[in-house]
Amino acid sequence: MLASTWFGARGVWLAATLAALVFLIRAPALWYAYPFEGTADERVIVDHAVEIVRSGDPHPRAFNYPSLHVYAASCAFALLERCGVLAADPRPTPEHFLVARAMVLALAALGVFATARLGARAFGERVGLLSAAVLACLPLHFVFSFVARVDVGAATWSVCAVLVALCLLDGASRSRDWLLAALFVGLATGSKYTACVAGVPVLAAFALARPRPPFVRLASFCLVAPLVFLATSPYVVLDPRGFGAGIAEVRDAYRSNLPGHSAGGATSYLAVLGDWHRGLGLGVLSSAAFGVVRAWRWQPRATLVLLACPAALFGLLGAYPSHFARNSVVVAPFAALFASHALLGVCEWGASRFAAVARSTRRARLVAIASSVVLVGFVLLEPTRVSAAEWRAARLADVRGPALEWIREHLEPGARILCEQRGPPLATRAPAFDVTEVRCAVEARARTRAETFDYVVLTDWTRRAVAQDPERFTALVDAYAEFAASHALVAEFVADGVRFGGDSIRVYRGVQGAATQ
Q: What is the pLDDT of residues 472-486, one digit of tens each?
């Protein structure tokens, strides 16, 4: 039987309080890399949202992600600009990135609340609250909750879809339950294409429900879910040629072995497991595996529904040679849920054994509480430490700041500068220079000789990715060595805060003999 304390008032308020604390604690990290534009992935959302506001044309012009987050950000920008909160500049301001990040953080807090309710529905209020607390500590969920990306939103809507899917197991579902499931699956897919796996638990619930729901309910779900997706990403069908070209561009980038694009060979199942290990922690991952076994013994149908989404995502992600940790954020709530179920089970078992030999019930209760705190603290120590380090790093200065100021002060106006995209934003913040931006300056020398520029600004990000896998990037390893030998180093800026461009930014002379002022 599923837990009957789904929406107990006390549990709801505790879960809401925990979600609010998550938002408040993580809020200072929203200023990550401020006052510069955010990461390249953030610009896919923010730049196109601003373009929609300026032009009035709802075409997103990019299909890296579905359009839901772009449209939500454009609505927020339009409203706040009208109210005078944001500046209506032609280009996005740093404050536009802050607003987009705050929206993602709100979704992360909602995801914590939804995870608490999912755990309460499946295993009881205590498991639900502990699941929310565990999720709040996991680095895989934490680090993507204060940047304008789509992964946390996909995770939140997926949890909501699975929560409704558990309701469908009871067999007494109504039409609106299936429509609600379709809404959440459509929103999850509208956040990230791979989140279409949120529909698998609903299909599993239909197959496992007793009594079996009418087939028309499943048909309505299969019709409405794609319609919700298309309502949030209409240009998938309005511009099929552009959509196909955009998807092919992303696919080709993954296949071309670009530095920094992780690859695991023909498939990446082991690589995905490695991401889970680093993003969840060994203790949580091991506890989650034990929690699956324990849940299967007592509630096999509910366990299948809860496992359907992360298992389907693992199968999808592992089939591709390239992988990114952010693609696995959807797994974090389910790992937290099963880990919490296992931890509370171990604590209850220990308490019952101790109570049998203890002389007083009060002593047994105190020992049980203390043991539970120690066990949970031990399992969460590693992920909490990593998340805390990320929180502190997000509040430190960006290395691009001192590099930008030094270039403004020391390089002659009009100097021709070849700058990598992850370097200081010279094109927008230093109009006195003739700046050309490229993804990798060393690689671009075949097309635009570095000797035609007065200065070259290299970031450490690409060089470090090349150094980590020299056999794949032999030509680039040689190119970096040749570049360092033939170009004089003018200045170097080592990161002690945000490592947006890697560990350092270096300024070289492009033309031999060019002097600094």
A: 788 888 888 888 888
What is the spatial distance between Cα 150 and Cα 45, in angstroms, rounded to a whole number? 9
Q: Return d(Cα 376, Cα 464) in angstroms, integer.
A: 36
Q: Which secondary structure element, helix H or strand E, spans residue 507, and what is its range?
A: strand 504-509
In this prediction, residue 202 carries a pLDDT of 96
Residue 155 has pLDDT above 60, yes or no: yes
Query: Which helix or strand (DSSP H or E) is residue 236 part of?
Result: helix 235-238
Residue 78, Cβ neighbours under 10 Å: how many? 18
Residues of 164-185 as b/e, b for ≥16 C-beta within 10 angstroms? Answer: bbbbbbeeebeeebbbbbbbbb
Question: 392: which 2 tokens?
Answer: 């502190």
9-58 confidence digits (pLDDT tens): 778 889 999 999 999 999 999 999 888 877 778 989 999 999 999 999 99
Q: pTM score > 0.85 for this model?
A: yes
- Measuring CA to CA, which residue among 33, 42, 56 is closest to residue 498? 33
Residue 139 · residue 383 · CB < 8 Å: yes
For residue 10, the tally of other CB atoms under 10 A from its CB is: 10
Nearest-angstrom CA–CA distance, 162 and 254: 30
